[in-house]
Structures are given as structure tokens and as C-alpha cells.
Amino acid sequence: MNISKITCSAFLLSLGLLVGCTEKFLEEAPADQVTDANFYQTQQDAIQATNAAYSELTKEGQYNLAMWAFDIMADISVTGGDDGNDGIEYKQLEAFSIPSTNTVVNRLWGGSFIGVQRANLVLQKVPSIPNMDPVIQKRCLGEAQFLRAKYYFDLVRAYGDVPLFTAPPASPEAVNIPRTPAAEVYKQIEQDLKDAYENLQPSYSGTDLGRATKWAAAGLLAKVYITEGKKPEAAQWAREVITKSGKTMWDNYADNFKVTNENKNEKESLFEVQYVNGRNQYDRNNVGSSMNEFFGPRGANQTPGSGYGFNIPEPDFVNGYEAGDTRKAATIWVPGDVFPDGAKQSAKATGSPFGYNCKKWFVGKKPEVTNIWDSPLNVPVMRLAEVYLILAEAVGPTPEGLEAINKVRRRAFGLPINTPSAAHDLTAGTANFTDAVINERKYELAFEFDRWFDLKRTGKLIPVMTAQAAYLRTLGITQRGIPTEKNLVLPIPQSELDANPGLKQNPGY
């Protein structure tokens, strides 16, 4: 990906909020000279403020910690890592014994709301900046609308009712508002994405490559609608992307997850979290992704820190791949797999008693590719393949729906996506077609952190995870808990309840 890799500094925005700029977009500005009183004066100010709204995506509150949990709480993976308290925040989630002080619970809430407020500042301030190029001004507003919708979509799916801010609070006291019903939050998300679709450009190039496009907004809107069970609307927006965006799927599934393809992240990708080579230090709020290190096989010396071995694929998930499915080799290390240095994946390792590890985010440890702890591999948030699966789920086993899911399946088996396959295509007689689509999502989007949300929205979370816990116990894996109704949402962070008397905890916590 080509966004300029320029170090940024933090700058002070209204209400004393210290905003860290995204490292890829911004130029330096002395933090002690930039305030709300003298900022938002120029077009460059508008661009910097917009870039700042992206930066939380790369950090612990999103894709460098919190989002990993949504496969660990599902039937994709278990925590892994070492014994004792190593990764205790994930072990609590895995066990469905989640205190309101859980680190992941706190980071997701806090990071998402920082992103929301940065987007709100753009929407409030940028319209009044004089002498802006109207194209850039419109783009900045669209990006802020898209990002606010993305952050709120994660919040409402994870916590249920959440405070809804559509403008920066006018005072410190104004931060303390009660939770807004989820239906109203979804209504705002829908409107933001429709507005973003109108304001955003269809594509970018050069240093702007990686910004949200109108197709990112359309794809995310389709996903929002399918989450709400609004199938006609989901189908409408999925078709918008498929027929008008010009997007195409990579011939090979694994090409979605190669650093060498990031300068082409507009091919199948609708939106990616942008990472770059890091700063040679352990910091999950840095410019690089930590998944190469954290998910790397533990002690195998294949990553700069020798691998931490978190997010271990569960045996029945691994065994659930159909024979010939190329996604397995792109997603999972299995015993006997050969590493870049010629060593092999072991049959058993600390945290991985069956010899499985997540491979999808593996980069290795070559200095030109990754520095200590950090990886430059982007994380796709929306891909064209997912849009096809949304369309299939929305319209069912109609010719349109069957062709949509079968394109994804053909690619999975290394076949041309437009050529029917008697061996692998689903047919109109496929039993439980919706279940088949959700299962296809499980393998297409594995370790892209959607599975818990899919199980929850389809009413499958409790029965699937209850059966999963029983199965794992037969293998001697006892840490998986059994969810109850309260686990359909996360607890509200205790620190937020202490600070805001208007908030109420979710039932059961």
C-alpha cells in the first residue's frame, strides 16, 4: 500500500482530547503549538484531523488487541499462549467469565469512542474551514461519516445499547449521557453510511490509497443490514458493490494476505486497516500489526520474538475444512508444514497441544519485511468475497444467491469463479441454505474476527458454544466456558460505570 509513511505527532483538539495522528497520512506538527483555538484553519488541518480518526483502528482498542477476541469467543480458536495468567484477558473471554474490568472489554469501548469523537470533530469543524477544495472537504466529511459508523457498528454489536454522540460534547459534564437503544444507534449507522456513500470517492491512488471509498461504505452498509436482519436492504447494497465497484476477487485466496499485494489493496479489498513496518519496539499502539508475533507459533523462532502462540485453531474447526479447500493452507499451520527457514511445524507446542497455529497473519522476521514486534500486513475489514456471501444470505437459494456463494466456493477450491463446478457448487436443493452460507463465512473469514458476531446474530451462539465446550472436554481442553444469555453482549467497563452515573450495566454482569 502506498500511503506516505511519515511520522506524526499528537495534537490537541477540543475538550482537552489528545489525538494521535495516523502514522501513514500525516506530517509533523508541534504538539505544544496546536490547540482547538488555532486548529481547523486550513485544508491541511482538515486532512490531519480526518487522518486522526483512522488511527484508532490500528491500536489496542481495535485490530491490535480487542477484535481478536471475537474468534476466541467462538468456535474458531482458543486462547493459546503460555500457562498461568498469560493472556488472562482472553482466557476470561474464552471461559465466558468476563469481569467488567477485563482489558479487552475496556480497550474496545475506549478505543472505539476515541474514534467516534475524532470523527465528530471532523464533522463539526471541517464544514466551516474557509477556502477548502470542495472535493477534499466532501471527502473528509465522508471519511468521518464512514469511520463513525464503523466504530459504532463494533460498539453496538459488542455491548448492545451504547451512548450515542453525533457531535463533540460541549463540556466535560456532557460526556456523561445514558445508553441509547441499539435500534437508534443502528439508525444512525445506516444514515452515516448512506451519507458517506454520497460523499466518498470511488477510488484513490498514490499517498491516498487506503482511504475509505464509496464502495467501503456500500459494503459495510450491506453488512449492517444483514446484521439487523434487513435482507432486502442488504441485497440492494451488496448488488451495488458487485455490479458497480469494478472489484474482482483474487484468483488465489492467499493473495488477500500478502504484504507484496498491499499496493493493490483496492482489488478485492473494500477497506483495510493500514499497517507499516514498525519502530523496533514492543508497542501494540505503534504503526505495525502485532499479530505476526502474537499469533506466530510459540517458541518456533519464526518471528522476531520467537512467537507467542495465541489464537490457536480448534481441532474441529481445522477438521471442518472440505478436502481440497485452499483456504486451510493459507489460514493454519498444521504439523509438518515447512517454515521459511526450512524448519517444520511441530505436532505439539506450548499452548497448542494439537500442533495448530494461525497462519493468516504470518509475515516472518526478515528485516526488510518486519521489525521487532511489528508487521506491515494490512487487515481487511471488508472484502468482495464477503459481499458475495452477504448477497447469498440475503436472497437465499435463488439463482442469484447460489451463484454468489458458489463464486466464493470455486475460488476456495482453486477454480475459475465463473465456471460452474459440479463437485463444489451448492444447488437449489441444498438443505439449510442459510446455515451453509454462515458456515462458508466461518471458513472464508476465519481469523478476520467475525465469527462471534455471526453466531450471535443467527441465534446460534449458545447452542454452538455449549456443544463446543463439551467436544473440547473430550480432548482434555477444559478452559472453554459455556455461554448464557448475558454473554450475548459484553459487560460495560467498570471504569465507565464509575465515571458516568448515567450508565447502567448489562444484565447478569
UniProtKB/TrEMBL annotation:
Domain SusD-like N-terminal: 24-225
Cellular component GO terms held in the UniProt record: cell outer membrane
Similarity remark: Belongs to the SusD family.
CDD domains: SusD
Subcellular location as annotated: Cell outer membrane
Keyword tags: Cell outer membrane, Membrane, Signal
Species per Swiss-Prot/TrEMBL record: Hymenobacter wooponensis
SUPFAM superfamilies, per the entry: TPR-like (SSF48452)
Protein's UniProt name: RagB/SusD family nutrient uptake outer membrane protein
Source organism superkingdom: Bacteria
Ranges for domain RagB/SusD: 267-509
Gene3D superfamilies the UniProt entry points to: 1.25.40.390
Membrane-spanning ranges: none
Location (main, coarse): membrane
Lineage: Bacteria, Pseudomonadati, Bacteroidota, Cytophagia, Cytophagales
Pfam families cross-referenced by the UniProt entry: SusD-like_3, SusD_RagB
